[in-house]
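Can't paste images in this forum, so I'm doing it all in text. The chain is below; anyone willing to post the predicted structure tokens underneath?
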Amino acid sequence: MKKIWFMMLMMCAVGAFMACSSDEDENAQSNPVSGVSVPATGKIGNEVIIRGTGFTASDIAIYLENAEKDRFKMEASFNNAGASFSVPFTVAVGTYSVVLVQGTNEWVLGAITLNGADNPVMALLMPDTFVAPGTEVLLGGNGYEAGDKLELLLENATPIEISAITITDSGLKFTVPATCTEGEYVVNLVRGVNSWELGKMTVQKVRRVKSIVAGASQMGLDVTLNLSYDAEGRLNSIVSEDGMKWDLSYGKNLIATASALSGTPLEFILDESGKVTKASAVDAYDDTETYNIWTYEGDYLSSIVNTGEWYAGLNLENIYEKGNLVNLDAFQIVYEYDKDALKVAPNTIEPGIALQLAVLIMAKEDTAIAFLCGITGKTSGKVPTEMKVVSGFTPEGEPTYTAQSITSSKEGEVLKMVTEGYQAEITYEVAE
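Text version of the structure:
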């Protein structure tokens, strides 16, 4: 009898348990999607596609959840074949659970490992010259977005974050903080919690030329010049060790001096940006040739010509190409640059002009002074690595060239350049 009662009690307990379980199952909502396939890997910034059916159910959302249970809602699109979303840059690299949420119910659909995003910047172009603290810099390329930031990293220094950027048709502009110390910085682009190294940028304080030693040994010419500046940083005196001297005075859009060779008054007429547009022609023969005319393409000098009918001096044309001094046609010289060329202090005297300075002073004194004054527009930021000199002509009259390497070195504030027949040494100082 006891056994019968015991069995009856067990059957009642089981029945009650099954009844309770049935009630809970009826209250729980079933997963609206089925046949789900979550990709094993993806990339930050790229699209993720989840295959399956049922994603057209109402009021559903997809979240990514990391190991710390932080969740990130995806801006997902749903259709009969599944769901898709782009992983935002606010999500870090790592493995995430893909969670489907509908109302108060949720289901884990699978897991995905997100790898780092590809660099979003295409046709990237870093500055290839020194940049000064407090100046504006352009990083070329496209793919920059509003909200991007930059991070400047100098070895053994606290990273510098720059959020004030301007996106243009040609790239991204920002101002180098005036507090930046000199050195080579790694430039990172920061978007959300992701970053990419764009390249390296060398910061250097503004320099000016303190002295130049230049020679053209094959012509028996050499010159040593010492330069001094006024309180406003303008060149006010050029003195050579062999007794030549130019004292410069300044007026509105005008610089005046006198020829150290003949005593003839010289003047330089400047435009509003400070570039020389007319300069006295010391090699003129009559009043119709008083001035040489200086023209520019953008910020770079393109020609120095004299339109006088009887002018017998030196004209210069096609001077700059792609931001570098290449052609001194009046001297029958062409310069070449390679990717490993040394950088020089920007907007000081052209290295290629410094190599020819001894000749230039004798042949075209006004041009030499203009380059020393820094009123010739933007200059090359690199030292030429090769000089081509005209060695003959083809039957059609085209010049043929002999190439000779330029050996250059920079130690401290001294840049040295040597090539066959020419040499120059430029000593810089920090501009006050």
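The radius of gyration is 36 Å. The mean pLDDT is 91.
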